[in-house]
């Protein structure tokens, strides 16, 4: 995308975000990417989050593979997450995984139904990461990436 | 190349007659084939190019379709996916090699087997992250299957080529058909129609249907107009050709039938054409005449030198001006043939002289007539001698020559003295013969170089131009006289010719022709006045005398016209009675300027000039008139005696004249008397006798005049009805002195009386003579002693008054004669009557 386009988009998103903030009144609704506290997964950059969740790079330095976990299908978190991350809607993400899964090399993140399940899995699997609302996280996980400075979702 | 192809139909025409149809079709076909080839080749190339491009675009489009998947594959570095994608791509026959790179690592690099890879068509596209369009996550490289592409392109282009060809063919076909139908067919019809019309002159071409208004129709009309024009032209040309042939034939007929000769010469004066008249008149056959030059000797013998004729022909050819040439030559028969040739120059088609044309009219007859005329004009008809004109011409030349050579020329005028007399006495025929004889004699005396000419009448002129000198002329003159003095026998008569000659010599007597002739003439007149029968050399003083002589003749003529003459009358008296018994009419001439001119002066001239007859007639008429007049006036009757000349006596004319005059004036013949000299009577006795008897029948008295002076034959006196004799005055005048004359007179008187005639004595001037005559017994007397000749009025007075000779009666013994009037009275008056 052109620079101008991006600038305009950013402004729109910012305006929209502030508007939504004003409208919803929710101050701290924010998606975060968490891993168990005992996981060796470091703090991630956005790009790394993208690479992991979208199957590009999942290997760590220590040789272990990170396993991303998806929120429930069609859940708002999922929508927001991917939107904020890559600006794609779920259909597109599904289509992406459809293709990738076709070849079988890379698998899509396993999708769990609720944040509770996600938390449970995270504790179980130190290589897994998931995303959820900040208010959904507990002490067993830690945030590896926060999505605050990203795009404002525009539904 | 196009041009060459275009010219092909025309070149093919040379081989064989082709039709427009075929040519057009062929042309169209060839053009369309060529076009098709060019176009299809071009389009093939284009199509291939575009097809290839299309395929490549297609390939690129393919890429686009797999772009998202490829980006996922590259993003996810999924070989399998990439492989699947590559497989999918390679399924497209257009793609030969697929290489997908993610970053540095090659995910997949697949190629179709057995394909030689040409790196011609490579499509490379960067793969972008599906989640971040700004990030490139890989690269896709496709190499197109050139072979396949080519195959496709070819296929496609072949297809389209076929289609194109079909299209072109269809279009060409349609075009051809259209042209055929719309253009070629009508043209063909027109061509066929025109061709057919050619066969029949004047036939029109039908307009191909439906083409009335367009160019074909107009062309047809024009063709028809041309046909009409051509028909007219052909007819005209035919007529002209016929005319030319006709005129050629006419010319031939003309040339061959023409009596004129036609000769055509070329530039070297050789004959190239001769007509039949030429052949006839020159006697030269055609083969010889043609192509022979006028120079050649054998063929003709012209009078003019051949070179001259040739030169004249050449001059005509040079100047271009026509000329007339008189050409004469000897015909085969030997006679001279004359032709007047009219020669013109002939020109060829470029206007250059090509020869000459000569047309000759036969003028032989004309020339002969001309020559005759010339001869007639220059020669005297009777004698054949040169005439005045020719003489003057020759004299002129002689004078010129003498001037140059410093010699002399002599002109002799010869005049016959008595010619008129002879002519009148013997008649014109004998007179002519005399002239011819004289002419011949003169010619015979002279040399061949001398000229004898007849000037006219009885005048001849001799021209001498060689060895002229006075002694020579003397000799010649003498010779002439000798020759001519011999008598010539003409018509049974012996005639003596007497001539008068006058000689003038150039240069002393004159320097030009006229003067010489005039002076010779003057000398001749001088000779005449010197008594004739001699010759005189001109001298300066002759002029006046001769001038007089010649002037006299002119005056005489005038006198006759202007009535300057009158008659005087001398009374004849009877010696016994003394009364006037008759009158002799004597001619008197009173000239207005010169006064009275003596008859002795003018009578000889009158005789010379031939006026004597006119004078005689005038006298007769005047006498008759006078008689009538006196009758009217009551003058006592008296007889008038008129002298007749020899000429008058010797023709019967005189009788007619006198009869006519007596009738006209209603005068009795008895009142008229004629006196004739005796010598006249002697010549032509027969005619004279006849004349006198005729006169006697008219009542006219005849008196012999000058009796005693001529050689008279007394027997003639018996034959002629003479009334009286007149004794010549020469006898009377010497009565007193010469006893001989006395005797003669007595003898004459006796003889006359014995013949029963009256005797009258002429010229008594004295009383003594008168006395003697009386005593001698003479009957009558005429003389001054009584009266001289006096005018009519005076004599009328005498007659009226009855004047008479005074007589002494006792001296006179009267002898009675039948004429004596009133003899009884005489006796009573005391006259002695002799027995």
Q: What do these coordinates show?
A:
The complex is a heterodimer of chains A (155) and B (835). Chain A has 155 residues and is an alpha/beta fold. Chain A is 42% helix and 15% strand. Chain A contains 5 helices and 5 strands. A 5-stranded mixed beta sheet of chain A has the order 3-2-4-1-5. Residues 23-27 of chain A have low confidence and may be disordered. Chain B is an alpha/beta fold and 835 residues long. In chain B, 52% of the residues lie in helices and 20% in strands. Chain B is built from 27 helices and 28 strands. Chain B has an 8-stranded mixed beta barrel with strand order 17-18-20-21-22-23-24-25, surrounded by 5 helices. In chain B, strand 22, helix 22 and strand 23 form a beta-alpha-beta unit. In chain B, helix 2 runs antiparallel to helix 3, helix 4 crosses helix 5 (215-257) and helix 19 (653-665) runs parallel beside helix 21. Chain B is rod-shaped, with a radius of gyration of 72 Å. The interface between A and B is medium-sized, with 18 and 18 residues.
Write a brief caption for the model.
The complex is a heterodimer of chains A (155) and B (835). With 155 residues, chain A is an alpha/beta fold.
> What is the makeup of the main sheet of chain A?
5 strands, mixed
Question: How many helices of chain B does DSSP assign?
Answer: 27
This entry's quaternary arrangement is: heterodimer
Q: Helicity range of the residues of chain B?
A: 40-55%
Secondary structure category of chain B: alpha/beta
- Rg of chain A to the nearest angstrom? 16 Å
Share of helical residues of chain A: 40-55%
Instruction: Tell me, briefly, the overall form of chain A.
Output: globular
Q: In what order do the strands lie side by side in the largest sheet of chain B?
A: 17-18-20-21-22-23-24-25
Task: Give the tally of β-strands of chain A.
Answer: 5
What shape does the CA trace of chain B take?
rod-shaped
The Cα radius of gyration of chain B reads 72 Å
Q: Beta-strand percentage of chain B?
A: 15-25%
């Amino acid at each position: 995308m052109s620079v101008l386009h991006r600038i305009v988009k950013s402004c729109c998103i910012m305006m929209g975000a502030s508007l939504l903030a004003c409208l919803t009144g929710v101050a701290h609704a924010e998606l975060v990417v968490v891993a168990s506290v005992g996981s060796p997964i470091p703090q991630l950059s956005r790009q790394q989050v993208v690479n992991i969740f979208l199957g590009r790079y999942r290997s760590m330095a220590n040789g272990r593979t990170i396993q991303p976990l998806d929120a429930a299908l069609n859940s708002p978190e999922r929508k927001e997450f991917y939107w904020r991350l890559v600006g794609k809607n779920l259909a597109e993400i599904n289509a992406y995984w459809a293709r990738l899964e076709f070849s079988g090399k890379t698998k899509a993140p396993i999708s769990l139904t609720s944040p509770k399940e996600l938390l449970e899995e995270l504790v179980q699997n130190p290589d897994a990461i998931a995303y959820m609302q900040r208010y959904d996280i507990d002490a067993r996980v830690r945030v590896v990436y926060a999505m605050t400075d990203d795009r404002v979702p525009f539904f | 190349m196009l041009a060459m192809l275009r010219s092909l139909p025309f070149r093919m025409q040379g081989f064989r007659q082709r039709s427009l149809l075929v040519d057009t079709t062929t042309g169209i076909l060839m053009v369309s084939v060529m076009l098709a080839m060019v176009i299809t080749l071009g389009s093939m190339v284009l199509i291939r190019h575009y097809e290839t491009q299309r395929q490549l675009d297609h390939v690129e489009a393919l890429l686009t379709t797999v772009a998202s998947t490829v980006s996922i594959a590259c993003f996810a570095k999924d070989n399998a996916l990439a492989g699947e994608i590559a497989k999918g791509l390679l399924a497209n026959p257009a793609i030969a090699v697929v290489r997908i790179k993610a970053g540095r690592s090659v995910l997949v690099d697949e190629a179709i087997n057995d394909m030689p890879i040409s790196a011609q068509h490579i499509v490379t596209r960067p793969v972008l992250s599906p989640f971040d369009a700004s990030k490139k996550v890989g690269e896709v490289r496709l190499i197109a299957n050139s072979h396949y592409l080519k195959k496709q392109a070819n296929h496609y282009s072949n297809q389209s080529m076929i289609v194109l060809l079909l299209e072109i063919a269809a279009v060409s076909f349609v075009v051809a058909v259209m042209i055929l139908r719309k253009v070629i067919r009508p043209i063909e019809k027109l061509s066929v129609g025109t061709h057919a019309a050619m066969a029949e002159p004047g036939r029109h071409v039908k307009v191909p249907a439906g083409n009335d208004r367009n160019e074909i129709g107009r062309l047809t009309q024009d063709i028809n107009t041309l046909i009409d024009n051509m028909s007219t032209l052909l007819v005209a040309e035919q007529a002209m050709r016929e005319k030319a042939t006709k005129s050629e034939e006419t010319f031939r007929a003309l040339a061959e039938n023409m009596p004129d000769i036609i000769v055509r010469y070329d530039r070297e004066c050789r004959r190239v054409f001769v007509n039949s008249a030429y052949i006839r008149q020159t006697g030269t056959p055609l083969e010889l005449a043609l192509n022979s030059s006028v120079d050649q000797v054998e063929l003709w013998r012209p009078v003019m030198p051949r070179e001259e004729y040739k030169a004249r022909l050449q001059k005509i050819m040079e100047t271009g001006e026509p000329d007339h040439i008189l050409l004469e030559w000897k015909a085969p028969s030997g006679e001279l043939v004359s032709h007047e040739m009219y020669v013109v120059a002939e020109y060829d088609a470029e206007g250059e002289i090509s020869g000459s044309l000569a047309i000759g009219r036969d003028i032989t007859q004309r020339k002969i007539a001309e020559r005759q005329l010339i001869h007639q004009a220059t020669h005297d008809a009777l004698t054949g001698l040169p005439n005045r004109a020719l003489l003057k011409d020759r004299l002129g030349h002689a004078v010129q020559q003498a001037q140059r050579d410093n010699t002399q020329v002599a002109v002799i005028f010869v005049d016959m003295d008595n010619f008129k007399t002879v002519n009148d006495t013997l008649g014109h025929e004998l007179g002519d013969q005399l002239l011819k004889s004289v002419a011949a004699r003169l010619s015979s005396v002279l040399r061949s170089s001398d000229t004898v000419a007849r000037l006219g009448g009885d005048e001849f002129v001799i021209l001498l131009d060689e060895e002229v000198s006075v002694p020579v002329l003397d000799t010649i003159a003498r010779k002439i006289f000798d020759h001519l003095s011999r008598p010539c026998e003409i018509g049974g008569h012996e005639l003596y010719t007497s001539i008068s000659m006058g000689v003038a010599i150039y240069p002393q007597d004159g320097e030009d022709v006229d003067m010489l002739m005039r002076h010779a003439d003057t000398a001749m007149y001088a000779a005449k006045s010197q008594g004739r029968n001699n010759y005189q050399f001109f001298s300066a003083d002759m002029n006046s005398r001769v001038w007089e002589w010649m002037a006299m003749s002119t005056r005489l003529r005038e006198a006759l016209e202007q009535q300057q003459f009158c008659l005087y009358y001398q009374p004849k008296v009877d010696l016994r009675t003394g009364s006037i018994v008759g009158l002799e009419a004597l001619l008197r001439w009173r000239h207005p300027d010169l006064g009275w001119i003596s008859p002795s002066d003018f009578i000889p001239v009158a005789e010379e000039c031939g006026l004597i007859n006119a004078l005689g007639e005038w006298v007769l008429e005047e006498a008759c008139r006078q008689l009538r007049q006196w009758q009217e006036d009551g003058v006592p009757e008296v007889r008038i005696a008129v002298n007749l000349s020899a000429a008058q006596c010797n023709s019967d004319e005189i009788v007619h004249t006198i009869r006519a005059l007596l009738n006209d004036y209603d005068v009795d013949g008895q009142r008229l008397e004629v006196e004739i000299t005796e010598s006249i009577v002697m010549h032509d006795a027969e005619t004279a006798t006849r004349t006198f008897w005729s006169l006697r029948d008219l009542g006219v008295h005849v008196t012999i005049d000058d009796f005693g002076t001529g050689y008279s034959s007394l027997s003639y006196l018996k034959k002629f009805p003479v009334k009286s004799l007149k004794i010549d005055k020469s006898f009377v005048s010497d009565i007193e002195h010469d006893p001989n004359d006395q005797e003669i007179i007595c003898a004459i008187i006796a003889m006359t009386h014995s013949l029963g005639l009256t005797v009258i004595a002429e010229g008594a001037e004295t009383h003594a003579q008168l006395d003697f005559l009386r005593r001698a017994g003479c009957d009558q007397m005429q003389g001054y002693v009584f009266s001289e000749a006096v005018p009519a009025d005076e004599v009328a007075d005498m007659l009226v008054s009855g004047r008479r000779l005074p007589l002494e009666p006792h001296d006179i013994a009267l002898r009675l004669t039948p004429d004596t009037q009133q003899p009884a009275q005489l006796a009573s008056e005391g006259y002695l009557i002799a027995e």
